[in-house]
């Protein structure tokens, strides 16, 4: 394909985020299409046998197989790398494919990993159960306590893994401080940035080495496709991540890559509007429920740290009711506009009960350690009119006796 004039890093790296989200990584065929093309192909042809051999030896650039390269997928990877300020990006079939491939390609038997305790349920299963099966030692710490990361270090600590804001408790980790601690010990810093997206937060600028995403969330943002992404240094991507994924195959389909590419054109608008809505809704909920956690509220215990790392408070609110699961479920059942769903980052507002859905695979003790009680609800705020969301919450809260 012909590259559009100007699609080189010396120029695109100067573009501002909203421009990158629309035009970054664009490549055009000889037809000159304005919208990115979908290349639905599994394989590629060669001019001659030696060309095929040269590509497999790595001596000639070009496509060999869509488990490794695809033009549509590569456009998405270049755009996301530019958005996060990374040297390289590889996309995957889901967010958990991205998280698991990042950790399993980085860690080997005998290595030690430190992880923040507040995390998506599947990430905790990966850290607590799956990695130890392969000889990786893991330690879980309260990510809010910077000293806890330092105390957990061992001579064999290879990496630290964290979410900030964390799912679903919205704990904030001091990225700069943890990066300094990890780097002094020779460990990599891996950050799940799905809750913030590169629109609100760029962890690489604060010392992170690798950033991973569930692109299913804000990057698609309309509940259509599964996708994941990993960004980091070119050398790590080639020698560590690709050495693992080229043989295990967690690749994103060209169609799903195209959907995410088109979604990124509006991510700046969507995220900022959802953040505005979330702040209004969180301010209302502060007056109605026993406890609300939202990084954009002054009442959040880590509000100042959050605002030093993020451009806004994000699109997720955690709220607690005193009546446990019964009252939380009653509130969900009374919603008329807001959907009950365990997805998040959608244009539609969604709410779920983490203890019985996203974190149900964890023990009750582990959930409570994270701060997830039976009265917690996670609210992903969408693009509806904020007043309509508040009206729906008001009637649901009344119906549930809150």
What would you note in describing this structure?
It is a single chain. This protein is α/β, with parallel strands linked by helices and 402 residues long. The protein folds into 2 domains: 2-264, 3-Layer(aba) Sandwich (Aspartate Aminotransferase, domain 2), CATH 3.40.640; 267-399, Aspartate Aminotransferase, domain 1, CATH 3.90.1150. 42% of the residues lie in helices and 15% in strands. The protein is built from 17 helices and 14 strands. The chain has helices at residues 9-12, 17-23, 49-57, 71-84, 95-106, 121-133, 146-151, 175-184, 197-200, 216-220, 234-248, 254-264, 267-286, 303-309, 324-334, 364-370, 386-399, and strands spanning 2-3, 27-28, 88-92, 112-116, 137-141, 157-163, 188-192, 210-214, 228-232, 291-293, 316-320, 339-340, 350-352, 376-380. It has a 7-stranded mixed β-sheet with strand order 3-9-8-7-6-4-5, with helices on both faces. A 5-stranded mixed β-sheet has the order 10-11-14-13-12. A two-stranded antiparallel ribbon has the order 1-2. Helix 6 links the parallel strand 4 and strand 5. Mean pLDDT is 95; it is low at 1-6.
């Amino acid at each position: 394909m012909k590259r559009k004039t100007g699609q080189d890093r010396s120029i695109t790296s100067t573009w501002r985020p909203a421009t990158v989200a629309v035009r970054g990584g664009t490549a055009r065929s000889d037809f000159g299409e304005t919208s990115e093309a979908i290349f639905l192909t599994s394989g590629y042809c060669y001019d001659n046998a030696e060309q095929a051999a040269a590509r497999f030896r790595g001596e000639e650039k070009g496509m060999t197989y869509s488990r490794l390269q695809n033009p549509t997928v590569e456009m998405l990877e270049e755009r996301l790398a530019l958005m996060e300020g990374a040297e390289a990006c590889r996309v995957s079939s889901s967010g958990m494919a991205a998280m698991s491939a990042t950790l399993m390609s980085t860690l080997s038997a005998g290595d030690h990993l430190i992880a923040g305790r507040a995390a998506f349920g599947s990430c905790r299963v990966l850290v607590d159960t799956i990695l130890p099966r392969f000889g990786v030692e893991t330690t879980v710490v309260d990510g809010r306590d910077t000293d806890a990361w330092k105390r957990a270090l061992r001579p064999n600590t290879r990496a630290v893994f964290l979410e900030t804001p964390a799912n679903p408790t919205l704990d904030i980790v001091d990225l700069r401080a943890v990066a300094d601690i990890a780097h002094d010990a020779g460990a990599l810093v891996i950050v799940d940035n799905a809750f913030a997206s590169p629109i609100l937060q760029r962890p690489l600028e604060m010392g992170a080495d690798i950033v991973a995403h569930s692109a299913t969330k804000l990057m698609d943002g309309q509940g259509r496709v599964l996708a994941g992404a990993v960004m980091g240094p070119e050398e790590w991507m080639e020698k560590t991540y690709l050495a693992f994924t080229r043989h295990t195959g967690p690749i994103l389909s060209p169609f799903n890559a195209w959907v995410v590419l088109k979604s990124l054109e509006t991510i700046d608008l969507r995220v900022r509007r959802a953040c505005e809505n979330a702040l209004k809704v969180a301010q209302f909920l502060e007056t109605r429920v026993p406890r609300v956690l939202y990084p954009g509220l002054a009442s959040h215990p880590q509000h100042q740290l959050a605002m030093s790392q993020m451009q806004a408070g994000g699109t997720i609110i955690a709220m607690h009711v005193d009546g446990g699961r019964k009252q939380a479920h009653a509130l969900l059942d009374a919603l008329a506009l807001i959907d009950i769903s365990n997805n998040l980052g959608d244009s539609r507002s969604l709410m779920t009960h983490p203890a019985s859905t996203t974190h149900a695979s964890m023990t009750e003790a582990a959930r409570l350690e994270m701060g997830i009680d039976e009265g917690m609800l996670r609210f992903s705020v969408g693009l509806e009119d904020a007043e309509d969301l508040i009206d729906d919450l008001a009637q649901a809260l009344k119906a549930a006796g809150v």
